[in-house]
Automatic annotation (TrEMBL):
Pfam families: Transp_cyt_pur. This is Allantoin permease. It is a multi-pass membrane protein. It is found in: Membrane. Signal peptide: none annotated. It comes from Vreelandella olivaria. Belongs to the purine-cytosine permease (2.A.39) family. The chain crosses the membrane at residues 44-66, 86-103, 123-143, 163-184, 190-210. InterPro entries: Pur-cyt_permease, Uracil/uridine/allantoin_perm. Keywords: Membrane, Transmembrane, Transmembrane helix.
Length: 234
């Protein structure tokens, strides 16, 4: 809980500082730390810097990036793929994809689709879909339901909450439609470039307004059941 946020913040801050200092160090702005390390003349500092890059890669991938695809592999065939096999499959896919990208950069494989660019575009589009969901969930819990939930009713029909939340679908559809419009027409590029932030903000606003107008979500769940205090003995 503490180690992951601290290490990720440290390495992210280190990247920002190095990029800002690269103009003074090498005379040009270099965002890629590996390229910047390649411009260092001292072998000692090159080895030390590469060790830090390796530690950063391992800490980030082991603690964060491996978890999701491992769970996906397990869900595909839970009887055949356990956690260990899911991790191995994830590592194998990563090695193959990175190997292809390195061979392409080295000129061994004819240049084609850039894996880095393809992944960046996919990640940006994926975040554009997750942003509205985050905004909807935050507004629904903090503003609509006032942090009060009837948890059993979430899994039951015809109880405290509707089976279909129309306001939620509207709030999700509006940012997604604007994202697709930006991609297809080339207009409003800023909306797609900042997809998670614009999607979450717009989704939150639309959901709050739509939930008030349509009243498709109860204003607040039932009050939590409080344990009764034992009667004082006389």
């Amino acid at each position: 809980m503490i180690g992951l946020p601290l290490t990720m913040f440290f390495f992210a801050a280190l990247g920002v500082v190095l990029t800002a200092a690269s103009e003074t160090l090498v005379g040009q702005t270099v965002a890629d730390p590996v390229n910047l390390i390649g411009m260092i003349d001292s072998p000692f500092w090159v080895v030390l810097a590469m060790l830090l890059i390796i530690i950063a890669t391992l800490s980030t991938n082991t603690a964060a990036n491996i978890v999701s695809p491992t769970n996906d592999f397990q869900n595909i065939a839970p009887k055949l793929i356990n956690q260990t096999r899911g991790v191995l499959l994830t590592g194998a896919v990563g090695v193959l994809l990175m190997g292809y990208d390195l061979l392409q950069k080295a000129g061994i494989i004819p240049p084609g689709v850039s894996l880095e660019q393809m992944y960046s575009n996919w990640l940006l589009g994926y975040s554009s879909l997750l942003g509205p969901i985050a905004g909807i969930m935050a507004v629904d819990y903090f503003l609509i339901k006032k942090q009060r939930l009837d948890v059993p009713s979430l899994y039951m029909d015809n109880h405290a909450y509707p089976a279909v939340n129309i306001a939620g679908f509207i709030a999700f559809g509006v940012p997604v439609a604007l994202t697709l419009l930006s991609l297809l027409t080339g207009t409003m590029n800023w909306f797609y470039d900042y997809g998670w932030f614009t999607g979450s903000a717009l989704g939150a606003i639309v959901y709050f307004v739509a939930s008030q107008v349509l009243a498709s979500s109860p204003q607040a769940g039932p009050a939590p059941i409080m344990a009764k205090e034992p009667a004082e003995q006389r």
